Amino acid sequence: MAITRVSRAFKDISLSFVPHPVTKDLPILKNESAIRRSIRNLVETIPTERFFNSLLGSEVRSSLFDFVDYGTAVVIQDQIRTTINNFEPRVSNVRVDVEPQPDQNTFEVTVIFDIIGQEFPTQEFTFILEATR
Amino acid sequence: MPFTKFTNLDFDQIKASIKEYLRANSNFTDFDFEGSNFSVLIDTLAYNTYITAFNANMVVNESFLDSATLRENVVSLARNIGYTPRSRTAAKAQVTVTVPTTSTSPTLTLQAGLVCVGTTDETSYIFSIPENISTTIKNGQAVFGTQDEPINVYQGTFLTKQFVVDGSLDQRFILENSFIDTSTIVVYVKGPADSGLGREYELAKNIVGINPTSEIYF
């Protein structure tokens, strides 16, 4: 009989710090929500931004001022995939799609992944990358 | 690494210590993953602890003469045990000066300040005296110093600094020029009834024989 590894549930704090309307507890992120947030944090972190861990993060920010086309999208896609593979050990089968939206000057990023050790279906979430200044 | 080990000074050790604590005492599990929100909080805590530990370490080091490295702290600690730091020292020359004069005055005075300029290797050096020197005129000549007791001239510029005493107990008289040769300092205190430069105050090197009316500086 094959051994099935099941990891503990993932539980993270939410930085929104909006208290629960009834219990007044601080919000928490569980399992897939926690991992989604983690991936977004990794993508949005600029390398050298984190103390004593200069490699953490991705260089997508520097690509946001390039032409909004498929060439730049491929670069961003590669950076996001590398970052997730390097710094997020809880996911596997990572697929990243980056869709340029020249009219809005943004990139729509879709990340698809499986969570290791948990009985969850394949996860998919989308976020927008936009140069803010 | 036990959480009670308080001697950690490295950021990584402090962070590992916080994680160990959370592993045993928290419902949260994501602190082990660098991308998590919890990791941001841990980084902030660890960085804060790191800075505090570093500052505490520096403060303790600077509190002892053996380990202090900043000059002002070494000077402060040395002052507590009665040591006055040496200043820069001006080059000194011993000379005699002969001045032919037709003056009818019985004496001639060499004013404090620049007295001569020396030259060597195409470079000029100015020499000064810190106090007035007077001598008598004999046979139309004023001779300052003798072969046995020449006068001392010091390389550098003679400077004066005046302060007005405001009567407050904590008034300090600070000479801000860091190139001063402190062995040449001369202090005069002039009251309303005094004439000229006022009364000369002596450098006090210890408290033996000092009383409330002693005219000293230190």
Task: Estimate what percentage of residues of chain A fall within beta strands.
Answer: 25-35%
Give me the secondary-structure category of chain A.
alpha+beta
Q: Care to count the β-strands of chain B?
A: 11
- How confident is the prediction overall: mean pLDDT of chain B? 89
Summarize the structure.
The complex is a heterodimer of chains A (133) and B (218). Chain A has 133 residues and is of the alpha+beta class. Chain A has 3 helices and 5 strands; from the N terminus they run E-E-H-H-H-E-E-E.
Describe the protein's architecture and organization.
The complex is a heterodimer of chains A (133) and B (218). Chain A is 27% helix and 26% strand. Chain A has three helices and five strands; from the N terminus they run E-E-H-H-H-E-E-E. In chain A, strands 3-4-5 form a three-stranded antiparallel β-sheet, covered by helices on one side. The longest helix of chain A is centred in the middle third of the chain and has 18 residues. The model of chain A has no long low-confidence stretch (mean pLDDT 88). Helices cover 23% and strands 24% of the residues of chain B. In chain B, helix 1 crosses helix 2. Chain B has three helices and eleven strands, in the order H-H-H-E-E-E-E-E-E-E-E-E-E-E. The radius of gyration of chain B is 31 Å and the shape is elongated. The mean pLDDT of chain B is 89. In chain B, strands 1-8-5-4 form a four-stranded antiparallel β-sheet, with no helix packed on it. In chain B, strands 2-7-6-3 form a four-stranded antiparallel β-sheet, with no helix packed on it. In chain B, strands 9-10-11 form a three-stranded mixed β-sheet, with no helix packed on it. Chain B is α+β, with helices and mostly antiparallel strands. Chains A and B meet through strand 1 and helix 1 of A and helix 2 of B.
